[in-house]
Amino acid sequence: MSGSSGNGMHAPLLEKANGWGDAPSKGPADVSAANLVDIPVDFAHDGFGTIEGTRVPLIPRVPPQNKLIRDEILLVKIQDAVVRKIRVVLSRDVIGFGAEHDPTMTIMSDHIPLEEIQAAYEVEGDRELVEIITLTEGYNSGRIYQIRTTHDSQGWTKDLVQLSVQARDRKTSKYLAFKTTLATVYDANPTQAFIILMIVVNFFLVVVEVQIQPALGSKLQKNFSTLDILFSFVFVIDLICNIIAHWFKKWVKNPWNIFDFVIVSAAIVASWDIENLEFLQSARAFRVFRLAGKMKHLRLIINAIAKSLVPMLNAFLIGTILLLTLSVLGTDFFGKRDGQFFGSMFRTTYTLFLALALGEWDVLPVVPEDEDAQIDWGALIFNVLVVVVLLWIAVNVVVTILLDNFVQATIAHDNKENKLDLLEAQAANIMTGGVDPLIEEVLKLFDCSEQLSRGFKMLFHNFDYDQQGYLNFTKVSQGLKKVQVERHIVITEEDWEVLTEKGRACNSDGTVTLDQWDRIMRKQVKAYVQRDLTDVAAMKEHMIENYHILVSLRLLMDTEPGPTMDALDDCCDEMHDQLSHFRDNGIDEAVRRIESASIAILRAHNTKIPTTMARGFAPPPSQPPTVPINIFPDLSHNTPNPPPCPPLDPSYTMTDNGGGIYGGRRDSANADLVFRGETGVQ
Question: What is the distance of C-alpha 167 from the center of its chain?
């Protein structure tokens, strides 16, 4: 295939690029093992936590082995990133690129939907190099990918071209467009209302026909048969449209669709007048139950009954045991006295079942009509036992199970409705940063703060495709498009301004490091929870107790960093600048005083050491502090001229070997320092 395309040869990509060395490269030869860059093994490919294994992962996984067409370890360069030796897989839907340092070999650091490949060809002058160009407005935002194959570049190119054409045809086929349009029309409220009306009218006509029972061959009977055929035709069209619009998984997973199929099929077979299948005519009576598939409130009741079947079977088992036990007692005690009702086990069981059905039972006269006659205490006790055990206990247990399952089904239905209301309220929120769908999934994927940080680290490395160690608006916006969430994420520059707090949470050039990214996302998690609490509190305003609990939680969470922490951050930044200046001028005493004061402040406030202001500040060891905690008494008022720092704690020693500040306490034997400060350590 030619090395050119609609976008040209892309020669600059084959020249010098970030991470490819200082000297200009020699064109296609850049994608070689000599240009591999040693990346630190600090990638968090394990996600947020073990719970992610039970959900759709945020970062896509490699397709199953049985769906792979090609699977090789190749040299890959993505846009201006460094050359990496990673796993490359090809299926009928995607070409995926594995993640470095992933022991499971299942994570895809990036992938390209084949329908979005604009061009794939062998680069002119280097037949082992395959270049892939993606759509500018597509999933990969126009990135250019280069793959150095080992020996089969023509095979890779041929497969990519053929599979991309097939994938594009599947996505843009007339059948798919027709299916989408049909689903929209079929699911519309007017269409469903018409089908419901047809079901109700048909059921009414069936009832009338059974009541009138027209003579066979009469005009009235022929009219009823014609109407039945007409309704059957309508229901067949309804079934066919439903199958086409929702085939395959969505249709099969709905049990009411299976029920519709059985009822409609039975009515069609019954209309053929096949011998020995006349009983299928009675299937017409079940058509009305198709309403449960169309009306959610009726479906709620039917689903509650269906969910009660297993618990009810247990209750029926207990009731049967009690009934048979009483039958044994009744046969033994009253079999000789009244053989008609208690002469055998079957007769006694049937007699007790009639009593259970609240029928009249005068087979054992407990209180005789003659006032002077003696009361039959045995019969009285047996009657009371039957009423208490069977009517008051066994029957009520079954009713309780039905009621409990109906309540649970109602609660589940209400929760779904509340979820939709909450989504509408979230859509109405403004100035959120645009990452609410991601935060919604994140809240389901972690158990502790460490897991949350690990998950944010995984997202950071996935978005940082060129491994430059920072993110910016372009990387984040492109990365969020690839995250697997229910609602597609597209952020704007205004959203980025919200996320970075108009530049206060990022560097001056608009980039963010890993620590800054972690803080940004944690603030978004907190803001998302606060907004949800506010929305839910408004929804539960009529429930006084729940409303006040939610409002109280909202107020407890509304503790943004105040002036004290802001002033602390500014003070530490200023001290870092002074520290660098003093070091350059060789003023060692000032350096040690500022270092000691900085450590004391950070320890007193138990705050994380940001990369941009710490540059190696180390948290102190666990020993009690020996410097005053209240270093700046007026810090909360942003005093411009704070009092001088206290004297250096003689038990602290600070050194700098060019790789960061080392701090710690010396023991009695003047041992070496016991703690090393590293960027980002809490």
Answer: 27
Both tokens assigned to 253: 């997973």
| Cα–Cα distance measured from residue 217 to residue 350, given in angstroms and rounded to the nearest whole number | 44
Q: For residues 338 and 335, give the distance between their C-alpha atoms in angstroms, rounded to a whole number.
A: 6
DSSP three-state, residue 599: helix
Structure tokens at 341: 């009702």
Q: Rounded mean pLDDT of 127-147?
A: 92
Give 547: exposed, middle or buried? Use CB within 10 Å, 0-12, 13-18, 19+: middle
Kindly tell me the burial class for residue 215, based on how many C-beta atoms sit within 10 Å of its own C-beta (0-12, 13-18, 19 or more). exposed
Q: Report the number of secondary-structure helices (H) and strands (E) in the chain.
A: 21, 9
User: Would you list the DSSP string of 560-629?
Assistant: ---HHHHHHHHHHHHHHHHHHHHHHHT-HHHHHHHHHHHHHHHHHHT----HHHHSS-----SSPP-S-S
Would the pLDDT of 280 be above 60?
Answer: yes
Q: What is the pLDDT of residues 20-30, one digit of tens each?
A: 333 233 334 35
How is 474-535 classified by DSSP, letter by letter? Answer: HHHHHHHHHS--SS-----HHHHHHHTTTTTTS-TTS-B-HHHHHHHHHHHHHHHHHHHHHH
pLDDT at 460 over 80: yes
Query: Other C-beta atoms within 10 Å of 188: how many?
Result: 11
What confidence score (pLDDT) does residue 4 get? 36
CB 303, CB 413: distance < 8 Å? no
DSSP conformational letter for 676: B
Report whether pLDDT(384) > 80: yes
Token pair, residue 27, equals 């064109």
pLDDT at 6 over 70: no
> Could you tell me which of 322, 346, 348, 320 has the C-alpha nearest to residue 334?
348
**Separation CA 77–CA 85 (nearest Å):** 9
Query: Is 70 exceeded by the pLDDT of residue 654?
Result: no
User: Given CA atoms 262, 267, 270, 271 in this order, what sign does their dihedral have?
Assistant: negative
Paired with 334 in beta bridges are none
Residue 666 carries which side chain, given as an amino acid letter?
R
List all residues 6 or more positions away from 457 whose beta carbon is below 8 Å from its beta carbon. Answer: 43, 44, 514, 518
Q: What angle do CA 516, 422, 298 make, to 5 degrees?
A: 145
Can you spell out the DSSP letters for 153-201?
A: HHHHHHHHHHHHHHHHHHHH-HHHHHHHHHHHHHTSHHHHHHHHHHHHH
Per-position DSSP letters for 314-333, written without gaps between them: HHHHHHHHHHHHHHHHHHHH
- Determine the Cα–Cα distance for residues 102 and 482; give it in Å rounded to an integer: 19
| Tokens describing residue 206 | 């069936």
Residues whose CB falls within 8 Å of the CB of residue 309, separated by 6 or more in sequence, listed in order: none
Name, in order, each residue with C-beta under 8 angstroms of 41's C-beta and a sequence gap of 6 or more: 101
